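PROTEIN DESIGN WORKSHEET
SECTION A - STRUCTURE
LENGTH: 382
TOKENS:
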């Protein structure tokens, strides 16, 4: 009988495992793939995400520092820069593998290449069945990402209004060419997907190129990324990878009687940027801490509800306003872009959200004050 079984070895599961091990929980982590493994992702790692780590990242993990943003809409371009890094670009394969190694340092038990088939809450324990055996634990954390179905032991699966679909590929390029064309700037293309955007992120010797939108409004995503690639001068034969991403900011059930959901499985994603790493790491840590409080510090099983309160206090309001902002931006993409061109601070300040200098709520209310000035000039009112 384990204290805790963690399902999934990505950033959320690895972060939960490291925290659980440091807190003395008898922990088993189950991951269906062998690491390092490929992970389709643009690889943006915000300063918020890095702040949750209790260790330094080695230099080889960071492939590029981001200090600016180039926004494109219907061949119109606006570019803003900061004098400091607002985000880092990483290879998810290397980053995720490093996090799992840091979890292993705490002496928790880790099984890779072992897929979990079912997770069932019992009155006194959780039963986990894999292709290799059956395990029991007092509690479990489901950190399997957006694709998995094990989260349905806590809540129903999301419908197409509540998640997005992304398709991504890597385009090899000469480092000098990347430096000349992009440097420390990432490129976001608006209006190419309903409820989403296209991106070109410069990594080390390759570009991460992708496109994503809300599932119900984004038919034939592979056709759209082929068009997006061609329109941006990429004409090779590229290997495409698709993945789901939850729409953040939606109120979801994230805890059962003995199971907690973390990271993408819980729906913790910034609805504007699509970033989930910060919330994956922090929610995994919170989940482990709450369970340790019950198992090691004489807490009551009802204390499991503290997990939702911790997540809400840390980033719940932030993600709620990310959803509000996302809906407005994608409902009126051209108007939003025109306002950004009219007042460059609108786009510049959005980088402060990525940098955690301000949160989405503060940015939203600041925008409400700024936008009327745009309309006054646009329509010559007042």
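SECTION B - SEQUENCE
RESIDUE ASSIGNMENT:
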């Amino acid at each position: 009988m384990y204290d805790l079984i963690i399902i999934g070895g990505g950033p959320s599961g690895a972060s939960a495992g490291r925290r659980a091990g440091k807190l003395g929980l008898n922990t088993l982590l189950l991951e269906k793939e062998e690491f390092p493994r490929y992970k389709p992702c643009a690889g943006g790692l915000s300063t918020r995400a890095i702040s949750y780590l209790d260790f330094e990242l080695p230099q080889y993990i960071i492939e590029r520092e981001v200090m600016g943003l180039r926004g494109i809409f219907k061949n119109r371009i606006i570019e803003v820069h900061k004098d400091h890094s607002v985000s880092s670009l990483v290879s998810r394969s290397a980053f995720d593998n490093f996090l799992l190694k840091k979890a292993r340092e705490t002496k928790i038990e880790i099984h890779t290449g072992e897929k979990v088939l079912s997770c069932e809450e019992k009155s006194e324990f959780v039963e986990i069945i894999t292709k290799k055996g059956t395990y029991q634990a007092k509690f479990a954390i489901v950190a399997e990402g957006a694709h998995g179905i094990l989260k349905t032991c806590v809540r129903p699966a999301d419908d197409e209004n509540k998640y997005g679909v992304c398709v991504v590929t890597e385009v090899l390029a000469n480092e000098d060419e990347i430096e000349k064309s992009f440097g420390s700037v990432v490129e976001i293309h608006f209006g190419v997907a309903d409820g989403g955007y296209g991106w070109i992120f410069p990594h080390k010797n390759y570009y991460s190129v992708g496109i994503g939108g809300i599932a119900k409004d984004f038919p034939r995503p592979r056709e759209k990324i082929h068009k997006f690639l061609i329109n941006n001068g990429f004409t090779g034969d590229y290997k495409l990878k698709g993945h789901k991403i939850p729409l953040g900011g939606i109120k979801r059930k994230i805890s059962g009687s003995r199971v907690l959901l973390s990271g993408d499985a819980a729906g913790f994603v910034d609805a504007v940027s699509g970033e989930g790493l910060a919330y994956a790491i922090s929610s995994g840590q919170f989940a482990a801490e709450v369970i340790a409080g019950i198992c090691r510090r004489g807490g009551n099983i009802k204390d499991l509800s503290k997990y939702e309160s911790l997540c809400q206090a840390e980033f719940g309001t932030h993600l709620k306003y990310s959803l509000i902002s996302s809906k407005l931006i994608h409902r009126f993409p051209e108007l939003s872009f025109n306002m950004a061109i009219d007042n460059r601070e609108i786009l510049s300040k959005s980088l402060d959200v990525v940098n955690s200098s301000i949160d989405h709520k503060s940015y939203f209310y600041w925008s409400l004050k700024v936008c009327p000035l745009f309309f006054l000039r646009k329509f010559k009112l007042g």
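SECTION C - NOTES
The domain at 2-64+92-158+248-323 is CATH 3.50.50.60 (FAD/NAD(P)-binding domain).
The longest strand covers residues 163-172.
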